[in-house]
Model the fold of this input.
Amino acid sequence: MTVSIRRALAALAGLLVLTLPVSASAHGIGPAAGKTVWEFLPLGAEHMLLGFDHLLFIAGVLLLAGGLRRAATLISVFAAGHSLTLITATLAGWKLNANLVEVVIALSVVFVGMVAFLGRPKTWSWFTGVVFAFGLVHGLGLATRFQDLRLPDKGLLAKLIAFNVGIELGQLLAITIMMMAAHLVIDRTRLRPGLKVSSVPLVAAGLGFAVWMTFFPPAPVNPHAAYAIGSCQVRDRTETFEGDSGHPARAFTEPGQPAPEAGFAHVIGDGYVIVQYRPDLPAGDVDSLRGHITDPGSGRIVAGPAPQQKEALKAVHAYNTLTCSSYDLPALKEFSRAWFADPRSKPVE
Done:
């Protein structure tokens, strides 16, 4: 197995060095808006298989392991580390600079390559601990990328677990491909690179990726880019309101009455959510919307009819707009909850 892994690593590292810019730019997380829990499985697998740095780290660990049992132990420890921080950091809202994390991960590839160059450890306990620590770092990077998706809290844990399972499946697939490539190399060539020779492309690839991410980092994710909440879409706010007549006389303006646009113009600066609805909504929808708007527990929110509006429901705050082609009260509640949790929503004293 040792020779097979060495050959596979040498081929894999060389290929990934050639495709470095593509790999680096692709290593995000694909579109997730509206995906079901089960659809997060392939999303996680895709993220792993496009992860230049993750793949090389795994290849380096396999190179050093030199045996199936030790390889399984090290990969399991690594998986436990990144699973722990992926789930914990995402649920806790911990975010780091994703590009900085990627540089650290690239340097972890360099570290594994240098250990391989110097020779296998005489004792494996310290190296196993280092693999676990790097797994924690990998998980923090994954958590940061995952949070960039801005998924609603409802169903988040299930989607996160599915995404993590997808990562593990992708990792298993990657290892399988490495081993198949190794057997192909054995069948087609007579090359027998030693441990030191095999470590060279690993170190080179890790250094190359670290330099690439330092000087050519991908564009930051726009936290206000369009994303989905339920059946609705959230985008940057472009709507404006004219005038300033103070607070609206009432929180909910009934269908058939003119909406207090000047009042909306006043309260949007106070951190309010402004809801505009089509007055031809079914009576039951209007009743439920009225109940939500007038409930003191709903927070700073006002609503009025918009006869010319195409969308069934629209909600606006200082930065974003929620548009719903059909009535979706849970989406409105989630949109408002997220805004009121944002420090920018607090009115200036």
Summary: The chain has a mean pLDDT of 81.
